[in-house]
Amino acid sequence: TYSRACRRSRPATSMSCCRITGSRRLHTNDKRPLYAGVSIWDRRTLTAEFGNLSKAAVQLRMTQSGLSRAIVDMEEYVGGQLFERTSKGMKPTALGAALCRHANRLLSGFRKAEIDLAAVSRGDLGSLSVGCFSMFSSWPLPDAVRKFRETLPRITLSVEIATHEKLLEDLDSGAVDILISRSPPGLNAQIYRTTPLLTDPAVLACSTQHPLVTSSTVSLDDCVRYPWVTALPESRIRLELENKLREVGCVLPSLVGALSIDFGREMVSTNEYLWMLPGSVAAVFHARNELHVIPVALGLTESPLSAIWRRDRLSTQHVRAFADILADVVAAK
């Protein structure tokens, strides 16, 4: 059915530009990306994300009517409704969500192929895409990237900084090759390969001019008098923190959820906020005299920082090399 349908002639704004197979023929003078044939189904730029046809059409540089026709064409091919209208806009059906999920994996593969081919055409030896949980973007990632570039200068390297959940999705889709993040307890060892790098507690830090720095002793009761920058609301570690403070009889402080190194540093610079962050990262800032680590134990569950990649993909030389270099950087701390 698909092969017969795909042979039918379609207008340029229709399925000839957005077949699931991405098989639209690209001529040698076509300067669009290799993945142009399926880019209409990128869930980051389509109706599934925007919930609005007009916004998705603008992002795709199409007319709204052209995008609407393309969706109707695809619904004919798959034999079901892809989107439904709700009070909050367009929402993908189960079929639409599944289609977007598979299309996103195709897009990631096309983008990866385009980067690799561009690297080879420049005389490089390939590419590596690294995803890093934002709280480790200041250390150890930069040191590892610098050392990797010195060791393998002919590898095209790209880095994405985001939340663990977002990066795990990108790892699954193939958008990133290796993930640097906390390894959660429920991570499926049959799907993911992990190289543990270190295990450290979450700690509280403040500016070197904060009033708590000069206190002879500091307790949690002292700390909750000040506002905190912590993990995002409803995250595992945030919920654990709130429960722990209640257990010891502390009143919850004013909490701001953020997973940004720059934001955290800016907030503590006012000499008011306290900042909860990984102990290893806080120790680096402490050694540079940029932060003061408050000597109070939070008693939260410790999850190891790990290099993570999927078992169902070839463990390339580039991935292994980056994981080894990252381990060396952590060990030398």
Secondary-structure blueprint of this entry?
Blueprint (H helix, E strand, L loop, with lengths): L1 H5 L40 H4 L2 H8 L3 H15 L4 E4 L2 E4 L1 H28 L5 E7 L7 H11 L4 E7 L1 H10 L4 E5 L9 E7 L3 E5 L13 H4 L4 E3 L5 H12 L7 E3 L3 H8 L5 E5 H9 L4 E2 L11 E6 L6 H15 L2
Parallel strand pairs: 3-4, 3-5, 8-9, 8-10
Antiparallel strand pairs: 1-2, 5-12, 6-12, 7-10, 7-11
The CA-CA distance between the termini, in Å, is 59 Å
Average of pLDDT: 81
Counting DSSP H or I runs of 4 or more residues, the number of helices is 12
H/E series, N to C?
HHHHEEHEHEHEEEHEHEHEHEEH
The global form is globular
Structural class: alpha/beta
What share of residues is helical? 25-40%
Strand content: 15-25%
Over the alpha carbons, how many angstroms does the gyration radius reach?
24 Å
Explain this structure to me?
The protein has 333 residues and is an alpha/beta fold. 39% of the residues lie in helices and 17% in strands. It contains twelve helices and twelve strands. It has helices at 2-6, 47-50, 53-60, 64-78, 94-121, 141-151, 164-173, 220-223, 236-247, 261-268, 279-287, 317-331; strands at 83-86, 89-92, 127-133, 156-162, 178-182, 192-198, 202-206, 228-230, 255-257, 274-278, 292-293, 305-310. The strands form three sheets. A five-stranded mixed beta sheet has the order 4-3-5-12-6, with helices on both faces. A five-stranded mixed beta sheet has the order 9-8-10-7-11. It has a two-stranded antiparallel sheet with strand order 1-2. Strand 1 and strand 2 (89-92) form a beta hairpin. Helix 3 crosses helix 4. The longest helix is centred in the N-terminal third of the chain and has 28 residues, at 94-121. The chain is globular and about 70 Å long. Mean pLDDT is 81; it is low at 1-45.
